Structures are given as C-alpha cells and as structure tokens.
C-alpha cells in the first residue's frame, strides 16, 4: 500500500494459501492500494486459496484499490481462486478493483476460475446468515467503470447451511457514473444454497406431506446469480456481449412449501441505471437452468 501511487508488475506464477480453525482466513495473490492511483499488471498464473472451519474465508487473485485517482488492472494470467469454510461465510474474487474518485478499468484475457463454499452439516441450529459469494471480475467506482474481458469465467458457489445464501456473478459492476463493458469470453456458473435437510415438527394428520407429526424438510436458501450485472446512478451503461452465458441452479425443487427463503434468481445480463441510459448489445447464447424463477 502507498500514500500516493501504487504500481505492481508481475510476470511469474504465484501460489498463496491461508487456513484457520476458529479464526478468519484470507489469501491474496497481488495487491496494490494507494490514496491516489493503483496499477496492477500481471501475466503470471495465480492460485489463491483460503480455508476455515468456523470463521470466514476470503480469497482474491488481484486487488487494485486507487482511492482518489483511479484503479487499473491488466491481466493475462490464469486465475484459480477458492474460499471455503464449514460454518462461516466464504467469498472468492478473481479480480477486484475499486476507486471512489475516478475511473476503474480492467482489461482481462486470462481464464478465471472461482469457487466459494460453505460446507457445514445443515440443521435448524446452524447459523442462518452465512453466505457463499463468488465473483469473476468485481469493480466499483464513483466515476465510470470500463471492463474489457476476453477470458473465460467459471464460477461455483455453494452454501449447505440452513437458509444460507449463495451469490455468483461473472462480471459485477457498481459504477456511479455509468459503465462500459465488453465481454467476449464464456461465463459458466453453478450455484446451490441451503440444500441440507432439517428435522422439523409439522402437524399433518392427512400425512400428505410427511409423517403424522414430523418429517424431514428441505430448507433451501436463496441463490442470486448473473452472468453480467451492472448498477449505476448516472451516466450511460453500455454492455456489449458476444460470449455464451450458462447458469445452472443446483438446488432441489422440492421440500415442504418448496423454497422457504424467497427463491432463486438466475439472470444472464442484469443492468440498472437509476437516472441514465442502459444499452445492451448481446449476440451470445444465454442458457438458464433450474431454480424456482428464471430471468
């Protein structure tokens, strides 16, 4: 990190890992943080993994945080990022860029594979506020966001705990003054959440759902997925996509009353601009499979 500018160049492979039993675990491949301008140039392959038992787990391949003068990332290396825990929350990000004062820009032509997993044994006594979050490219800026991606992005997000949430987004953008996104890579997402069976007491004299007084009920959590997602307040949001987007919801479509936590959401391209325009040019195939509601 730096009080002025931060620049990182890397041309070789990087492997980092972190583990913890009761505490949090964090792993980062490359990181540039500065009050002004942050720049990361990477051509090496990066593997980052974190693992915890009861704490939170977080892994990121590349971080560029230029607070006031902008954040820039160029990557051509392969990124393999994973975060796992049993009873905490897990978040894994391929490329993460942030700036509150200027433009955030990401150019990527490396393949990105990201997985986030919460794998504890589910029952009604386990935590209900856990999350498994997987992002291929995640960018936030007060100014405009520019992303040019030609790499393939593969995401896996799973949360086995009772009413847990699972989020997976290939390209995720929060650009206050608009965004320009060009994607030619394929995006493949698989997600599941809260698939564990929980023992619950149910009065069912007709025994149409289960036994007379009790049964095993599948409590599914919420899944929130998107191939490309943008949120802006002003400016113009432009998305040009020619890559194929495939999203598969692995949750079972069953259990008592089906999904008890609001449903699963699958969106190929999700664009919102509160006060500005949204332009989407798509020539890629979008396939959404599974889930209670598909968009």
Précis, in short:
The chain has 295 residues and is mainly beta.
Keywords:
295 residues; 8-stranded parallel beta sheet
What can you tell me about this protein's structure?
By secondary structure, the protein is an all-beta fold. It has no helices and 26 strands. The chain has strands at 6-10, 14-20, 25-34, 38-42, 46-52, 57-66, 71-75, 79-85, 90-99, 104-108, 112-118, 131-141, 145-149, 153-159, 165-175, 179-183, 187-193, 197-201, 214-218, 222-232, 236-241, 245-249, 264-273, 277-282, 286-289, 293-294. The chain has an eight-stranded parallel β-sheet, with no helix packed on it. The chain has an eight-stranded parallel β-sheet with strand order 2-5-8-11-14-17-22-25, with no helix packed on it. An eight-stranded parallel β-sheet has the order 3-6-9-12-15-20-23-26, with no helix packed on it. The radius of gyration is 20 Å and the shape is globular. The relative contact order is 0.11. Residues 196-217 and 254-262 have low confidence and may be disordered.
Shape: globular
Strand content: over 45%
Number of strands: 26
Helical content (DSSP H or I, runs of 4+)? under 10%
**Average pLDDT rating:** 85
Structural class: mainly beta
Report, as a whole number of angstroms, the end-to-end distance. 41 Å
What is the radius of gyration? 20 Å
Question: What topology does this entry show?
Answer:
Blueprint: E1 6-10, E2 14-20, E3 25-34, E4 38-42, E5 46-52, E6 57-66, E7 71-75, E8 79-85, E9 90-99, E10 104-108, E11 112-118, E12 131-141, E13 145-149, E14 153-159, E15 165-175, E16 179-183, E17 187-193, E18 197-201, E19 214-218, E20 222-232, E21 236-241, E22 245-249, E23 264-273, E24 277-282, E25 286-289, E26 293-294
């Amino acid at each position: 990190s730096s009080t002025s500018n931060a620049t990182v160049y890397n041309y070789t492979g990087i492997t980092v890992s972190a583990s913890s039993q009761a505490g949090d675990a964090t792993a980062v491949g490359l990181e540039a943080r500065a009050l002004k301008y942050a720049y990361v140039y990477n051509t090496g392959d990066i593997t980052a993994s974190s693992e915890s038992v009861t704490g939170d787990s977080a892994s990121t391949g590349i971080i560029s945080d230029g607070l006031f003068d902008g954040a820039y990332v160029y990557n051509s290396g392969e990124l393999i990022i994973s975060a796992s825990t049993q009873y905490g929350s897990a978040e894994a990000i391929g490329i993460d860029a942030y700036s509150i004062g200027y433009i955030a820009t990401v150019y990527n032509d490396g393949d990105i594979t990201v997985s986030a997993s919460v794998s504890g044994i589910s029952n009604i006594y386990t935590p209900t506020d856990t999350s498994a979050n997987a992002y291929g490219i995640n960018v936030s800026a007060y100014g405009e966001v520019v992303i040019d991606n030609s790499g393939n992005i593969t995401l896996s997000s799973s949360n086995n705990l009772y009413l847990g949430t699972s989020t997976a987004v290939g390209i995720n953008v929060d650009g206050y003054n608009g965004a320009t996104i060009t994607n030619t890579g394929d995006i493949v997402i698989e997600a599941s959440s809260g698939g564990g069976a929980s023992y619950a007491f149910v009065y069912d004299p007709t025994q149409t759902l289960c036994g007379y007084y009790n049964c095993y009920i599948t409590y599914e959590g919420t899944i929130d997925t998107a191939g490309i997602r943008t949120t802006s307040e002003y400016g113009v949001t432009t998305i040009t996509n020619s890559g194929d987007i495939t999203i598969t919801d692995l949750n079972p479509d069953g259990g008592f009353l089906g999904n008890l936590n609001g449903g699963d959401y699958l969106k190929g391209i999700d664009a919102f601009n509160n006060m500005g325009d949204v332009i989407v040019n798509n020539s890629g195939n979008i396939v959404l499979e599974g889930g209670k509601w598909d968009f």
